[in-house]
Amino acid sequence: MKKYFxxxxxxxxxxxxxxxxxxxxxGGPNPDETLDGPIDGLSSEEQLQFNRGDAAFAEVFTAxxxxxxxxxxxxxxxxxxxxxxxxxxTTLTRFGQFDSxxxxxxxxxxxxxxxxxxxxxxxxxxxxxxxxxxxxxxANTGLGFLxxxxxxxxxxxxxxxxxxxxxxxxxxxxxxxPGYLSLRPGTLIVNSKxxxxxxxxxxxxxxxxQTANAYNQDMGISSEYEAIDTYSHQAVTPEVSSETVxxxxxxxxxxxxxxxxxxxxxxxxxxxxxxxxxxxxxxxxLQMQTDYSPIAALSYKTFYPYTDMLLHDMGPGLDDGYTExxxxxxxxxxxxxxxxxxxxxSQGGQYYLMHDGRALGIEAAxxxxxxxxxxxxxxxxxxxxxxxxxxxKFLESL
Amino acid sequence: MIKKLLFxxxxxTTVSLVSGQIITTDSTKKDSSMLLNMDAVYNRPFLQMGKxxxxxxxxxxxxxxxxxxDGVSEGFSFQMRRFTIFMxxxxxxxxKFLAEVEFEDGTKEINIEFAAIDLEFHPMLNLRAGIIMNPxxxxxxNHDGPKWEFIDRPIEATQLLPATWSNVGAGIHGxxxxxxxxxxxxxxxxxxxxxxxxxxxxxxxxxxxxxLDIFRFEESFNGSPLTTAKIxxxxxxxxxxxxxxxxxxxxxxxxxxxxxxxxxxVDAMAIDFNTTLPKINTYINxxxxxxxxxxxxxxxxxFGSLQWGGFIDIVQPIVRKRMFGWKNASINLxxxxxxxxxxxxxxxxxxxxxxxxVVAITPxxxxxxxxxxxxxxxxxxxxxxxxxxxxxxxTGGFQFGVASYF
Lengths: 398, 406
Hints:
The complex is a heterodimer.
Chain A (H helix, E strand, L loop, with lengths): L4 H15 L1 H4 L19 H15 L11 E2 L4 H4 L12 E4 L16 E2 L2 E2 L14 E4 L7 H5 L3 H6 L16 E3 L13 E2 L2 E4 L10 H13 L22 H12 L12 H12 L10 E2 L12 E2 L7 E3 L17 E3 L28 H6 L6 H9 L2 H13 L1
Antiparallel strand pairs in A: 1-4, 2-3, 2-5, 6-8, 7-8, 9-10, 11-12
Helix pairs in contact in A: 3-8, 7-8, 9-12
Chain B lengths: L1 H21 L24 E2 L5 E16 L2 E21 L2 E10 L4 E14 L2 E9 L21 H6 L5 E13 L2 E10 L35 E10 L3 E11 L4 E2 L2 E2 L5 E12 L6 E11 L12 E18 L2 E16 L15 E14 L2 E13 L7 E13 L1
Antiparallel strand pairs in B: 1-2, 2-3, 2-19, 3-4, 4-5, 5-6, 6-7, 7-8, 8-9, 9-10, 10-13, 11-12, 13-14, 14-15, 15-16, 16-17, 17-18, 18-19
């Protein structure tokens, strides 16, 4: 009998391993601990396109498949690790425009500095005297919801002349729309310009506009949409297919919205009340509503981005002297706060906040608020230590 | 270039002269316990039929695996990792030839890993020419699947160093034996690396990416040879220690005679050690290496200028006896720990550390009906961090497979 023990042991071991397959592989983090992943409710066809877009988002470009020759990063994912905010390593420099008359430095490589180059080429350098701002790559999460908000909804929160006298005067950036874009139903057009809603200054009309620009300006990858090479300034053969660009756009549209954590924690609840009490929610709106979207899972949804998608004067401390579209140099589009507490997991364990990552913590970011947000910043200063802590706990829960 | 040739000539001459003075032991008297890693290419089971002067052999590696990353698995897969055929021939006394052709993942990759002729002028002076396995580290020389208790090859050896790394070239090697000691050296000039090592879809410096250049057996990428040298010393009771170096120019610095860039070097150093502990027969194998590159300062820091890593394998036979009719069958416990840092340095922008590393452990158990055949089961767990040092992705799962010489 004993001589069969090894056989029995071997068979039992294999059976054990097979039935344990799922329990032997490492589990993933909870959905509320990550920024990536699709929205609920995608059809199988949409899920496949999401997967294609995910793969294209991670694609690494090299000299052999079109990188550069001057560039900032080698892939989309390099700047948006885990679909979160970027890191100073991949911070962009935009330059050349200081008012609404347009970019004066386009012949010198504006509007974006490609400060890296493949071997054998020289990268761009910032022209002397050019106004510039550093731009930290934003998180990608929930962008489809922001894209599906109607212009009318955005304008309903605008108050360009501060008619209500609360010191907050949000307004839209009006931008020229490239011919390759299809306008959303209900798009408002004023003097041939449309509302820009993506980018730190709101200079991009939609996610295709943003994505085609990013391929071109960040990686030096030309497409049918943006065919001018950033190095030669000549039209070149597309280096990425329109299908791939559209897959990436679909991926960005269908990334889930960040899920708030610890919502029932009393400190978080208290922090949320303080957030409204000191007026943060005048710009960082608690909720928004999408309109119709061709992606059913995005249509007519209420969501919680903590932004109004409008430009606000943030005061001289955040005025870098550079702008885009019709925005003033001191104006920045209210960034969504959702996912704020998860920023560190895409930024190497360290917060880099505000448009250029200059704030190394949430409190430091609050204290940098000026201009229209000065009163809220002042109110924060006057809070008790406990209230300040609760407010930050609430922001970390987003 | 001239300096290099003069240096090589000087070295060959010196080695020849010195060897003529100090050889005291006939190499034919060595036994198998004094085989070194450099002997692995010939130390394989070959089959010779009749008086045909050619011996043939080979090995096969197949496995199944169920792996997943962060809760997502592609499910269960069978893999035919390698099917390798080797052929050797003693052309005449002291002249021999060996070739090794490998099919990886079915026919996805078909490579000539070794095809070289050896001429023995003296035990301490052999000329080798053809497609040579550069002797960097030990694994590159001694990588046959049936010799290992692990299904995956070491990350350090295959992804940091580019094993299996073969190139066209020529050089010399030799050995001497004295009582319980063996000393060996190898020195080769071969075709070398190319710009793929800093331009690849791994998005990091990768010497292994040089293998994507399909013309590398046809001509040098930049006309500059790669130097590979190794010295090894072995004591019958202590073990074998090897120190190796590989370096050369990796970029194309001239095009049609016009200088387009400065010459940029890649240099690698490796150290390896293996021993078998007396009485308990625990086999320990260690290899570590570091790589330095000259990368243009205007390129991206994504591609590191310094990398290092290593692994340790521990194999403990627990049963050795007749089993299932096989006379010298054995059951072994095995454990591998490995680490590679792909990008050593700090960010220009923040001064913070660039991380991008991988840590893996692999416990396993193997059954060997004989030394030539192994059935093995591994459980692998790997932590991978990106350049920013974000929370690691976790990959894990089990693999089981068989590998055998034939």
